[in-house]
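tool_call: predict_structure(chain=1)
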Amino acid sequence: MEHKNAWLTYDEAALTALENVSARYKAFLDAGKTERECVKETIRLAEMKGYKNLQDKIDNAEEIKAGDKLYHQVMGKAIMLFIIGKAPMEKGINILGAHIDSPRMDVKQNPLSEEAGFAYFDTHYYGGIKKYQWVAMPLALHGVVCKRDGSMIDVNIGEKDEDPVFCVSDILPHLGADQMGKKLSEAITGEMLDVIIAGKPVKDEDKESVKDGVLKILKDQYGIDEEDFLSAEIEVVPAGKCRDMGFDRSMLIGYGHDDRVCAYAQLEALFDIDETPEKTVACILADKEEIGSVGATGMQATYFENALAEMMALHGEEGDLKLRRALTKSKMLSCDVSAGFDPNFAGAFEKKNSAFLGNGVCFNKFTGSRGKSGSNDANAEFLAQVFGVMDKGGVSFQTAELGKVDQGGGGTIAYICALYGMEVVDSGVAVLSMHAPWEVISKADLYEAYKGYKAFVLGV
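tool_result:
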């Protein structure tokens, strides 16, 4: 069973639309290299499209009606968007869910050190990374510093042409015999991921110190003291913008496609809905998926059901039973990326059940590891309904598993939302070099994801 490459289905109008979506996505990816930045950019875009803050409605006990467009952010690190439908929410809503955190390195709370003429930031890697991929490349610092007087300093250093960048060093091949004899997983360890941030000492009385020079720069240029790192969230990410890839410009290479490509496709889908839908539509952009969806901003928290309960109360549908009915009768696409078939590593894939770049949005009936451990495993009846909606909407799609059965695996937020009793299936964009500092997607898959997500929320 083969699926036609989506590129072969486009006319000139579709190609123009595809390039426009890709250009907007590149801007979103460049503006949102952290979950906080993604939330801020999402709010900016949503307000331009007429979305209002749900919290204002809650605070003013203001009635919600069909056609209202709302957003609700959670601690600045997760966000939900809603379009209120004509039908009671008790009858179920249509949900799209993705995550906006990506693998990276986090600066530790006590990060500054000095050794042999260099100043360093100590880091703790976040999510599943291949540590050797993060050395000897330009890095940027993104995040926030929360001071004890209540003020907050935004940090974004390394993206402008005039900014400095940073790096983790690697051993030269001439002296790398010991390193080259190790397994890849051991060649670079977590404790070696110290970021070089300076190399010029300053004189402080009789002492020469590179660290003191860094502290002076941080104080003078950014208003940051060493104690402020105790209450800071600074992420180390690759420096640079998302770029077109290939002579034909058919692909995009950038940091954070997993899972911001699906997050943005969701936003495009909602922003393209002008009419009042029959059912209420929800878009969830969650945090912490890369470390198990834990914490107050991860999908295991209750903020989605809390927001839904607030909306239902303002919609005249207050009550725990009605909330439970709404959640159980809802239908959802858990929108997360899938592993794209890579000919260089063909042995890790089972080809006829793999996702291919350019073949459209991908559906994974199940994810998990080996014996489907940690998987949602969607129902056949729901899959048939979803595929029928894709066919009706002219959406190019494919199905896949995450590599060979005993090769490994991974998970998404699907199983968490399925605990409510709703129908859920994984759907996303195929990615090459997933979890690497620079990942690759096809523009066609982004475009088909946007089309598919819009078709889903309006058609199931």
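agent: The domain at 104-238 is CATH 2.30.250.10 (Aminopeptidase i, Domain 2). Proceeding to next step.
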